[in-house]
Amino acid sequence: MTFVLRMAWRETRAAWARLLFFFFCVAIGVAAIIVIRSVIQSVRSTLTREAREIIGADIVVQSPRPPTDEVRAILNQELAGAELARTEVVQTRTMAAAEKGKGNGKVKLVELRGIETGFPLYGSIALEDGTLTPQLLAGRGVAVTPEFLLEMDLAAGDAVKLGGQRFTIRGVVTKDRIDNGGQAFAFGPRVYLALADLRAIGLLGFGSSANYRTFLKVDERRIDDITSRLKERYRDSIVGVRSWRTFEDRLGQNLVTAENYLSLVGFAMVVLGGIGVWSVTRVLVQQKVKSVAILKCLGATARQVLAVYVIEVLWLTLSGCVLGAGLAAAAVAAIPDRLLAPLGIATVAVTPSAAAQGIAVGILVSLLFALVPLLEMRRVKPLLLLRVDTAGEARRGDVISRLVAVATLGALVLVAIWQSGSLRAGLFVSGGLAAVALLLLGASRFLLWGTAPLARSRWFAVRHAIVSLARPGNQTRVILTSVGLGCFFVLAVRAIQINLVDDFLSQIGATSPDLVLIDVQRDQVEAVQSVSAPYVIEPPRIVPLMRARVAGIEGARVHLPTPQAIREQGTLTREFGITYRDALQANERLTAGRFWNGAAPGPPDPAADAEVSISEEVRDDGEVGVGDLVRLDIAGQVVRARVTSIRHVAWDETQNGGFFFVLRPGPYLARVPSTFVGFVRTGEDAARRAALQRNLVDKFPNVSAIDVRAVVASIRTVLDNITLGISVVGGITVASGVLILIGAVAMTKFQRLYEAAIYRTLGASTRVLTAMVTVEYGVLGLLAGLMGALGAMGLSWALATYLFDIRWRPAAGLLSAGAVATAAVVCVVGLAASVDVLLRKPMATLRE
Q: pTM value?
């Protein structure tokens, strides 16, 4: 063993410069896994630890409608003897405007949160000069976010109009981690005011859109029991119940899932580094064949020789893992505080778990990729020193090598499953990497076949550059795989972004509205149309909107008599937005039954109150057909509707008729609450749009106007941020590919130096040698770029067609530029890494 250790150290010391590439391949992949896992584990630890403060209570009971006496009675019964504190919160939307002569004159949609004394029950709402208290909001005071002041050009102490009433800004919120009631999207900045003031300004009238929440602090020992009992009691209603413990569990599970899936990116990068390790080891074995033969002549066994190089690989891998951990620590420390502040996290550090996993994966993958080439050393015979022609046979694979290769692939699949925490995800990633590898392997064969005719070119540089591509040990496949993957990552993300953004922008100015008006009351419809008339380019469309749940189905194929049966069926359980009208819209086509013409004078039959038209999705999901009876719970009022038609809906034009259920107007509407939604087109003029918003705020305080163009701009910003993050990963992958390219050039330098010396001796100039290298790496880079671009085009098409359901655009300019840029990068790197070969004098090489 002493001999083995001494030989491993000597081999490493003698070849350290060439093995630096091995070292960095391992370090980059390990650093990627450690950074990803450390950041998410830190976020998870902080958020789950503070889950009670995020939710603001032990238990929250919420509903889209004001709690009824029955709801309150059930709550009081279940809380008997366990309630420690209770507070009410109501959240709704409205338009905010500054007083005339103040601010910049803008009108802003805001999320109003009306609170009572004691809110929140855990944690606090931090202000610039203290914390939010009921006394601060008393007498029509509000607390707003900094972005609200910035957008409105206001300051603390100024007045703002909400619901047509004057309020004074008394505080600026600097830290507010109370969640948004389970809502995934906020339509505007949050504004706090007293709940009594919110109720007094008339925004919570009949049919208004609001979220009513009761925050509860209860006996710690009874949290789970009370939560489960309330969920059971409210099972048949629209009331939702959640506790901080279920919030913590769900948050933790989601972050674990995110951690595992993102770690697959790090795993893919480690595999890419493993390809580089395999490349280095393969060339190392090629260079050390004679050395191994000498060792065997001197009495070394095949086991000892293999142990020497396995220990060398292990030593380099461990060193690379240590460097990777250091790079990860530096990267984590460099994360800007502004990115962590929204999560309430001050700092992030490398976690022991993440470091252990990153290092373990780095060691496993490196050893697995290095083992197959190293096993070739077992077949090197001492006779090789006397018979050079046996070298090829000595390095030929055998049954053991093939079995080890199969075992290596299986082990890589297991590592992928481990990193993803999912059998399905691990198999998908492994299959994807295998497919890409096979595709690029086929591309390398195609390259050699397709460029073979150029070997007969009259231009010397082209002829010999093409011959060099097929040189044994030239790393053509490795370069194509690594650079092609990096190009694929970056171009695929950019192509997908272009398709998504173009799809959003294509809607603006064509058929989509510029403003969406919500909470328009029945008696305000004509007045809203009249106020909007001077600002619009076409009459606004104002349609009725009701919220309903399916309470039962009596049909030929399905019988679901109760809400509980609907829940067990599982596909029609959500709350639907429904409407009523007397005609089909432009984006609808009748596929079955008969659509009505005009309002119904009375019920269609004794068993039904109304007629209803359903979409094909309702037919397919609920097995509902023409003639079936559907019971709809509309704000507590049950409407029995007979299905008389089925419609195909073009959902990409939902502003024209995006409803699963459409009722026929009739007498039943008198007992059903409804509001109206308006779709307004003002054109490109932002000033006209702002003026209309201000007039609507002045005359209809309850009406909220959502600026669709601003929403699309926000979506575009989100897409840009996501794309930036994934592009960083793609950029690192490209960097890994460039590193592999440099290593491949460095590892074959011993061949190139000799060839260059011969070429120079026969009269080739530096210019000719430079042209040869340029053509060789230019062809390699161009093919890698083309394969990456084609893969990106295929992925963007698949996602656009099958995932996002949008019109696909090939982004030919981007993909062409990406392929050319890849060729240029590979060419420049290849030339830079070959400078020594191009400039070295032939005499020194020949003397060696």
A: 0.57
